[in-house]
Amino acid sequence: MSPAHDLEENLAFTPKFDANGLMTAVVTDAKSGDVLMVAHMNEEALRKTIATGEAWYFSRSRKALWKKGETSGHVQHVVELRVDCDQDAVWLRVDQQGAGACHTGRRSCFYRAVPLGKSGAAALEFRDADKTFDPDLAYKPKL
Amino acid sequence: MSPAHDLEENLAFTPKFDANGLMTAVVTDAKSGDVLMVAHMNEEALRKTIATGEAWYFSRSRKALWKKGETSGHVQHVVELRVDCDQDAVWLRVDQQGAGACHTGRRSCFYRAVPLGKSGAAALEFRDADKTFDPDLAYKPKL
Prior knowledge:
globular, homodimer
């Protein structure tokens, strides 16, 4: 069998990281099925997530390992972790603690829709965009 | 207001592509909420998806624009397209035509789970992994 066939059909977990050492993580709400966020994991974030059952990521902007909710308390308990056919992306179904996953103060990062069938630059439309928490309070360092 | 605030709170669609000219596209089944696949879009794939309401992607391995289902007939009708807070990822809720989205013959690319709480290399576990179509037939060039 080809290496591609093995990667797709075997039960050996051989995650593939990109040139920057990262893989894509899609995070959905285990109850609603909504996509909460898209983030990235390096090998250490993936290992910590598997070991602890709580979501860890790697921040590309801060270049640092990051436990989701470490400041805000909005921890993500992982209900199920799946890997895709070519093992370069993971899907986390999570029990989202606290009021939301998005640093803007919303439950999901995907709070704007792109109108379809329009040519040119159409304006976005808000969807489920009410803020569920105050990010200025949630992310303020605790004294 | 800061540029980051504008990007997050405004209704101007200003998609951000990475150094390779790509952005991440998460695709979920509009009915079940399951993640079907993770793919990438360049500017042209995004533009065609918005204009036609059918999903187009950019294949990193083939370095080519690609209409989902062009060979297999497993087209994706986009029910809703959303963009995330920093506008570098999109979420497509689709009405998946045909038997599935994965080139391995399954409905979803995420047909294996990673066991949690285990240290070391635990074996993956199949989830919803029955094949729903024969990829050798679906992707065979039509004569």
